[in-house]
Amino acid sequence: MLHDLETNIGDDHHEKLQHLFDDAEKPLYAGCDKISKLGAVLRNEFKNLHKCVTCGASRYKRKKESDEIHDDVRKNGPPAKMLWYFPIIPRLQRLFSNEKEAKLLRWHSEERINDGKLRHVTDSPQWKKIDNIYPEFGKEIRNIRFGLSSDGISPFGTMSSLRSMWPVLLCIYNLPPWLCMKRKYIMMSLLIEGPKQPGNDIDVYLLPLIDDLKTLWNLGVNVYDAYTEQYFNLRAMIFCTISDFPAYGNLSGYSTKGYKACPVCEKHTSSVRLRNCKKVVYMGHRRFLPEDHVYRKKKNEFNGCTEHETARKQFNAYDQVKNINTVWGKRTRDGNGAGAGAGTGVGIWKKKSIFWDLPYWKDLEVRHCLDVMHIEKNVCDSLLGLLLNIPGKTKDGIRVRRDMQEMGIRKELAPVEKGNRIFLPPASHTMSNAEKKMFCKCLHEIKVLSRYSANIKRLVSMKDLKLIGMKSHDCHVLMTHMIPIAIRGSLPENVRNTITKLCWFFNTIHSKSIDPDTLDALEKDVYITLC
Q1: How far apart are CA 383 and CA 431, in angstroms?
Q2: Distance of alpha carbon 84 from alpha carbon 51, whole angstroms
Q3: Averaged over 511-516, what is the pLDDT?
Q4: How far apart are CA 56 and CA 79, in angstroms?
Q5: Mean pLDDT for the chain?
Q6: Which pLDDT does position 50 carry in this prediction?
Q7: How many other β-carbons are positioned within 10 Å of the β-carbon of residue 258?
Q8: In whole angstroms, what is the distance from residue 432 CA to residue 455 CA?
Q9: CB 90: neighbour CB atoms within 10 A?
């Protein structure tokens, strides 16, 4: 920090800077070799920098002084949650004050390859739409477009449920794709800590960030650009959010559980509750096929009915939420099952998201994105659990077979009772022990380049014939490259081809460059693959 500052200050401040260098080398006290005098000062100032917010079930208090917080804790007990807010405007000013960083923030306009393919967020239609609607914003190439991401972590181990921490991170899409996700350029703007996740009330904690974002959009901030050696008015916006599906519900306000959990179909979601599995399943994916497709007429292979519905057309989300009266805190239920504050959404929308307070939010076509790595890991876990029949992870079992029997579909797979024992006829995806061993042996013996992936051999248990301890990147490598190879010679051709097509779909959307002309065909193919 000091060396970077040395090239960006005037002559009158060099003496003060030299004192900082001296304090950085001077121990805090005689004999202390771990903490310098400057280090101790910075630690104390860092603690006082954060704005601390305490929030109860239906109250919002902003505290600026730590002694007031301690007095409140002594009188009323510990707060339900704690919020640390790290202002983003000073950090943006800091980025542009460095010549190297300021040049990188222009990369998306001056150095990227512009050949009509999707290589960067800049190539997306939404980026161009914002430039057209707000030409003054788009004309200044240094204006920042953020991607906001949030998810919960357990700070004391994966099995601990005593505490929950929710960081809210901002990535900068102006940067090259190989840098925008580097830790150095990701800004942690909020840290929400408490015994439980913020859930629907996350908007309360986002208030300080939204206030700064409004300032950055409406007024802008005067910033010095070290690359051009001039001041300019910096503006910024949230381009989209990135999260998994549960966090998507918290950020968007849509109810991602129950009978209407699909945010695309909304109230037209095709769902049914299985009596034996006691789960709600969604089996209406045939509606996305062409109207004359042969799968629409088949009954036994799907849910016992023909499909006449069509995919829902695009809707205006703001019309769905503008009249919702949001109530923070624990929600109550009315007679129709709608939560307090659900308003006209009748339980589908839980709230009007705080992001709608941003002037440009209504003009975005894709406001919330789902993280493909989360989806890929869930699909990989389910697929391997099904093929290897892993207890607790397989989707095939006695309860599923009984539900299919009650629905009148796939009668050849109905459970067979022989005395006190129940047998399940093998399905098309059922692998014998010999096939499982061959599948696991193939993965166990795979060798890859250093840092290409984790050591797959350590993930394979040849004794139990299953895969354990897989991380997100392990599932990514398995889905995109290794599973299609490992299933060769193990499964029937039609099953093997379907799994290979699914893996090829994930491999295609993970490409560094995508031809937009192929996306429509890719979408149609994956509908057929799912069916």
Answers
A1: 13
A2: 6
A3: 92
A4: 7
A5: 85
A6: 44
A7: 13
A8: 26
A9: 11
Query: What CA–CA distance (Å, rounded) separates 306 from 183?
Result: 50
Task: Name residue 367's amino acid.
Answer: R
Question: Largest Cα–Cα distance in the chain?
Answer: 94
Closest to 206 measured CA to CA, from 88, 72, 369: 88
Token pair recorded at residue 397: 């079992």
Can you tell me which residue has the tokens 């923030």?
Answer: 105
Question: Quick check: helix, strand or coil at residue 133?
Answer: helix
Secondary structure, 3-state, 331-378: CCECCCCCECCCHHHCCCECCCCHHHHCCCHHHCCCCEEECHHHHHHH
The residue among 494, 478, 498, 497 whose CA lies nearest residue 486 is: 478
**pLDDT value of position 419:** 84
469-475 contacts, C-beta under 8 A, 24 or more apart: 470/377, 470/380, 470/381, 472/373, 472/374, 472/376, 472/377, 473/373, 475/373, 475/376, 475/377, 475/380, 475/381
Q: What is the pLDDT of residue 131?
A: 95
Check if the beta carbon of residue 377 is closer than 8 Å to that of residue 245: no
Q: Which two tokens stand for residue 518?
A: 């192929």
- d(C-alpha 151, C-alpha 373), whole Å: 13
